[in-house]
């Protein structure tokens, strides 16, 4: 596609990332994702993050995958995309299903 100067769409990128995951092409998949994040015309979606998490898990990088999941809850992914209606919808579903986000906390202690 690069040789033909054709820009892939969101579905194509998801398929390529999934193929990298299933084919064991860890470095290629992670390099593609990094280039997607640096590219202005690519809108990274939750499907892309799911593929990267799959790539990391299949390659044994469980802690790295866990860190990505922790950093990017689904509602934060939607918020990052500016999809506020989706954020509200997801949080409502989480509320109905009894899922609770763990509140933020500080690791700063006062020794007084």
Count the DSSP helices.
6
Please tell me the overall pLDDT: 81
Regarding quaternary structure, how should these chains be classified? Answer: single chain
Shape: globular
Number of beta strands:
0
Instruction: Give the terminus-to-terminus CA distance.
Output: 62 Å
- As a percent range, the share of strand residues is under 5%
Order of helices and strands: HHHHHH
Q: Radius of gyration, rounded?
A: 17 Å
SSE-based structural type: mainly alpha
The percentage helix is: 55-70%
* Unreliably modeled segments: none
Largest sheet: none
Your description of this structure?
With 112 residues, the chain is mostly helical. Helices cover 62% and strands 0% of the residues. It has helices at 10-23, 26-38, 46-58, 62-71, 74-80, 84-96. The protein starts with 9 loop residues before the first helix and ends in a 16-residue tail after the last helix. The mean pLDDT is 81.
Annotation keywords:
globular; 112 residues
Strand-helix topology:
Blueprint: H1 10-23, H2 26-38, H3 46-58, H4 62-71, H5 74-80, H6 84-96
Helix pairs in contact: 1-2, 1-3, 2-3, 3-4, 5-6
Provide a brief overview of the structure.
By secondary structure, the protein is mainly alpha-helical. The chain has six helices and no strands.
């Amino acid at each position: 596609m690069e040789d033909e100067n054709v820009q892939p769409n969101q579905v194509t990128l998801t398929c390529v990332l999934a193929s990298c995951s299933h084919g064991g092409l860890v470095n290629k998949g992670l390099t593609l994702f990094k280039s997607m994040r640096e590219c202005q015309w690519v809108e990274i979606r939750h499907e892309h993050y799911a593929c990267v998490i799959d790539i990391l898990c299949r390659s044994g990088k469980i802690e790295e995958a866990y860190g990505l999941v922790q950093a990017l809850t689904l509602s934060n992914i939607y918020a990052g995309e500016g999809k506020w209606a989706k954020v509200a919808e997801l949080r409502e579903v989480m509320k109905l299903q009894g899922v609770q986000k763990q509140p933020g906390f500080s690791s700063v202690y006062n020794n007084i």
